[in-house]
Amino acid sequence: MLDPYTHIIDSKLEIAGITASAIYHFLIKTTDYAGKYGLVKNYVKKHKNSKPKKAYVHVPKEPGKSGQVDWKEDFVLINKAGEPINFNIFLFTLPFSEKKFGKLTLDKKQDTVINCLIYTFMYLDGIPKDIWFDNMLTIVDASKMNKHDRINDKIKQFAKDTGFNPIPCRPRRPMSKGSVEAFAKLCDRLLAYNNEFETVEDLEEIVNEFNKDINNETSQTHNRVVNEVFKYEKEYLLPIPNNKIFNSYLSNRQTRKVAKDSMISYKNNKYSVPVKYIDFNLNIIEKDNCLQIYDNTNLIRCHDISNNPFNYNRDDLKDILASDLLKNSDEEKIEQFIADNLSQYDNLLN
């Protein structure tokens, strides 16, 4: 009775953690199997225990041979104003020396990954021969998930231009990127900075200091200071390419989240946007002493870069006043309020 279905059961037994009950219910729902659960249970018990357990070989770590990439995703810290800041940390590790580099990001787009890799290579002043990536969609084409060559074309071209070999990790094989996953756990030390910072720039500086600290500590892997071992490994890294190659990929576009006061932070000063963008992640570019603010490709504001702590566009100021202090007031009353307080706002208006 069970023989016609054993090939299905055997294929399902390849799935880690699957139970006899799950397989039985799958057979009942998708085939004409009319036998009892006990038959399936006994077959699964016999064949599950007889299947050889999977193990893996520890590949010797070679200096300069490999690097590992992953994300610390959806990290949330609260700033001094009580506002939650949601961010990610791009993670890179050299398994031989355990040299680490983390970069704060507000998105995980492909251009962001490439920028982070460039910052990593500049930080290391070199490039490992192989770089292992988790199966992130910015690296791997979803349509090729079951194929050997899964790296998408843009990353493949970037790897060719900079000299490394991109390797996608096998799904559900955490041992292939154990060093960088240990780094992700180490990032939990940043939780101590809750309520200890004001802006995203402050957070970026905290992450930069974190990089310095962890690379001056002793690694449990080799029981030596990371930077001491890295001095030896660095000699085996590939040289970084000329600046033209990096500049052709490197974008000066950054991302900022709009705070509750309808402003974004840049270089420790704040710049206004319309109220409707509160809680949005907007792109910013500094160009010709102007701060250009985009919603995707749509330019919504251009502010002169200034040393003022608060910088308002006049329309944004009216929008902000109408949303709170002068709620339910008409435009004439809001304009009059600004005129009456012009000396207070004069230096803040762009």
Protein structure class:
alpha/beta
Number of helices: 12
Tally of distinct domains: 3
- The percent of residues in helical segments reads 25-40%
Question: What summary fits the major beta sheet?
Answer: 5 strands, mixed
CATH fold call of the largest domain: Nucleotidyltransferase, domain 5
CATH class of the largest domain: Alpha Beta
- Write the H/E string, N to C: HHHEEEHEHEHHHHEEEEEEEHHH
Distance between the termini: 81 Å
- Runs in which pLDDT lies below 50 for 5 or more consecutive residues are 172-176
Q: How confident is the prediction overall: mean pLDDT?
A: 83
Number of strand segments? 12
CATH homologous superfamily caption of the largest domain: Ribonuclease H-like superfamily/Ribonuclease H
Rg over alpha carbons: 27 Å
CATH architecture of the largest domain: 2-Layer Sandwich
User: What best-fitting shape do the alpha-carbon axes yield?
Assistant: extended
For this structure, the quaternary state is single chain
Report strand %. Answer: 15-25%
Enumerate the strands of the largest sheet in spatial order, edge to edge or round the barrel: 3-2-1-4-5
